[in-house]
Design a protein that fits this description.
219 residues, alpha/beta, 5-stranded parallel sheet, 9 helices
Length: 219
C-alpha cells in the first residue's frame, strides 16, 4: 500500500513500476485504476474487468494464456484506491479476491484514505494492516538539488562548464526554495519542475512576466 498526497506522483510511480516489474520479478504486470472496479459487486464482474484491462494492455489472443499462468507470474498495480465506490465490506472482499488471484498487489491511495481507515475502525480490524505500507514524501534539499541539476544540464551534458552548472543550479535552487516557502507549496517534483520550466520560459521576457506573482499563477 503506497500513500501520497495529491499530485505527489503516485500514478507516475505506478507506471514506472509497470514498466520495470516484469524484468525485475519475472511477473506480468497489469495496471488498473480502481474506478474500473467501482461498479462491480461480485467476483465474476471483477474477472471481466481484469480481462478487459488485460486485453487493452496486451491482446485478445494472449488473454487465455494469461489466465493459465501460475499465480506467481501475475502482478497488479491498482491506482486511486481511495476513489473506489465500495463500502468497507466491499473493499475487504475485493482485496481478498485480488490477493487470491495475484501473487503481488500494489495499491496506491491518497494520505487521507490512510487516516480515515485507521480512525473509523479498531486498529486490529484495519483494512490496511494486511499490507506493507509506504509513503511518498516531499523532496528534501538533497533530492531537490539533484532534480534541479538534471534540469539545468538537460541537453547540455557535454557542453556545460562545471562552474556554470554550479552557478545555474544555485540560482535555481534559491528560486525554488523561495517560491516553495515554508510549507506554502509541497516540495513534489511536479511543482519543482513547473517552477523551473516557467522560469526558463519567462526569464528572457519582462521582469513582470518573471515575477513571483506570475510564477504562483502558473502553479
Amino acid at each position: 500500500m503506497i500513500y501520497g498526497a495529491e499530485e505527489c506522483g503516485k500514478t507516475t510511480l505506478a507506471k514506472v513500476l509497470y514498466g520495470e516489474t516484469g524484468r525485475r520479478v519475472g511477473a506480468i504486470p497489469l495496471y488498473m485504476n480502481a474506478t474500473e472496479l467501482a461498479g462491480t459487486r461480485d467476483e465474476r464482474q471483477w474477472v471481466r474487468a481484469i480481462t478487459s484491462a488485460f486485453v487493452n494492455q496486451y491482446s485478445q489472443i494472449s488473454s487465455d494464456a494469461y489466465y493459465q499462468l501460475d499465480k506467481q507470474e501475475r502482478l497488479l498495480l491498482l491506482d486511486d484506491f481511495h476513489k473506489i465506490h465500495l463500502n468497507r465490506g466491499g473493499k475487504q472482499a475485493l482485496l481478498r479476491f485480488l490477493e487470491d488471484y495475484f501473487a503481488r498487489v500494489i495499491v496506491f491511495a491518497d494520505d487521507i484514505f490512510r487516516i480515515t481507515e485507521l480512525a473509523d475502525e479498531p486498529a486490529s480490524d484495519a483494512l490496511i494492516l494486511a499490507f506493507e505500507e509506504y509513503e511518498i514524501r516531499q523532496f528534501g534539499h538533497q533530492l531537490r538539488e539533484r532534480l534541479i541539476s538534471k534540469w539545468v544540464g538537460l541537453g547540455r551534458e557535454y557542453t556545460l562548464d562545471e562552474a556554470e552548472l554550479l552557478h545555474a543550479v544555485s540560482l535555481s535552487e534559491n528560486l525554488v526554495r523561495t517560491l516553495l516557502g515554508k510549507n506554502l507549496i509541497p516540495s513534489f517534483p511536479v511543482n519543482i519542475l513547473t517552477i523551473l520550466q516557467v522560469w526558463d520560459a519567462t526569464k528572457t521576457n519582462s521582469m513582470a512576466a518573471g515575477s513571483y506573482g506570475y510564477m504562483y499563477e502558473a502553479l
